[in-house]
Amino acid sequence: MKSRELSVRGAFEFVPEVFEDPRGIFVSPFQESAFESALGHRLFPVAQTNHSRSRAGVVRGAHFTVTPPGTAKYVYCARGSAVDIVIDIRVNSPTFGAWDTAVLDPVGMRAMYLPVGVAHAFVALEDNTVMSYMLSGEYVRENELALSVFDPEIGVVLPRLCDPVLSERDRDAPGLTQLQESGLLPDYGECRRIERAMYGV
């Protein structure tokens, strides 16, 4: 499995080897040794797994968790394809405001690791796109906030969508400056403290 650090500090893309034969394919989207080699520690203790199915043109996010408690994620696409997006919204982060993307699909089986405090979104490129997540914390509705993935201040380059499909929350989500002025963005130092405690490092 290969890895590369993304433009957002602490976020990584992982690319596993895919074994194919006349029966189909076999692949391991998560491998502890590769994760530990890239990040210097094991994956977070998994508190919840999520599974979503979306039609083409669906935009989910950008979502983030109030920190504390904060949540780290490991995401891959089991069916269809999606542009996965990570945005650094951690105040005082060396990459604050930066973003990066990777195309996730069941052909290359790339996966994304998203550290505590960043915002996450994806755009489904096909009908029946299935995204799978491992999370360090369980979902608590009042801790989950949204950032507009269309915020021009951030400037995420999205696939051309004739008619993007969003939830009401995501459609009405505030921009980065509004969230920062409201004091709702995570602090980078606090995120790192939570991660050190989570990973025991």
From TrEMBL:
Cross-referenced InterPro entries: RmlC-like, RmlC-like_jellyroll, RmlC_Cupin_sf
Lineage: Bacteria, Bacillati, Actinomycetota, Actinomycetes, Streptosporangiales
Identification of the protein by name: dTDP-4-keto-6-deoxy-D-glucose epimerase
Family statement drawn from the similarity comment of this UniProt entry: Belongs to the dTDP-4-dehydrorhamnose 3,5-epimerase family.
CDD domains recorded: cupin_RmlC
Source organism: Thermobifida alba
Domain of life assignment: Bacteria
Pfam family, one: dTDP_sugar_isom
